[in-house]
Design a protein that fits this description.
Layout lengths: L1 H22 L6 E2 L2 E2 L17 E9 L2 E4 L14 E5 L2 E5 L4 E8 L5 E3 L7 E2 L13 H9 L3 E5 L2 E7 L5 E8 L1
Antiparallel strand pairs: 1-2, 3-4, 3-5, 3-12, 5-6, 6-7, 7-8, 7-9, 10-11, 11-12
Length: about 180
């Protein structure tokens, strides 16, 4: 019995590293034969977003603005709700799981995250504490419904929709 438990523990510890390593060598996403990060019609490049870690600062939905106070760090999880875009792949932290998947940036600041159905992969750790202001599954759902992006005052804005169809804006700051 102890041997079986050790096998499961080893698999739980090393499987995410194996999966992440095998995904690292995938080719960058393409749009109309051009690599992601190429110049867009409006002159802005998604390349300014790539290669940097972004931390979620606030979530604007309907008449509510949820601000994440990273100074307080009430949950001891200062690195939650992050995203890094690089070479057609997005990765980051939820609360507490790591996630990764493809993204495609297009003309007019169009952006889609996840596979064709919006799915992304994530580790499966159970949270000991989860912030009530934004559940991890909500964060992943917003990312999978992103339709466009913008850089404003050095912050990255990802435009998504809530389950009811209303616009939601995720505002990230560079780390």
């Amino acid at each position: 019995m102890k041997g079986i438990i050790r096998v499961f523990l080893c698999a739980a510890l090393f499987l995410p590293a194996i999966v992440l390593t095998s995904c690292a060598g995938t080719a960058p996403a393409q749009e109309n034969g051009a690599a992601v990060g190429a110049a867009h019609e409006n002159g802005t490049e998604f390349g300014a977003v790539e290669g940097r870690e972004w931390m979620l600062l606030e979530l604007r939905r309907a008449a509510e603005v949820v601000v994440i106070d990273r100074e307080a760090d009430l949950f001891g999880m200062g690195a939650i709700y992050t995203a890094t875009f690089e070479g057609g792949r997005i990765s980051g932290m939820g609360a507490p799981n790591r996630f990764f998947g493809p993204y495609t940036a297009g003309a007019n600041r169009a952006l889609s995250i996840g596979s064709a159905d919006g799915a992304m992969a994530a580790t499966l750790m159970m949270p000991l504490v989860e912030p009530e202001f934004l559940r991890e599954h909500e964060y992943f759902a917003y990312l999978s419904r992103v339709t466009r992006w913008n850089l404003s005052g050095g912050n990255l804005e990802l435009f998504s929709t809530s389950e009811d169809g209303s616009e939601t804006i995720l505002v990230f700051v560079p780390k």
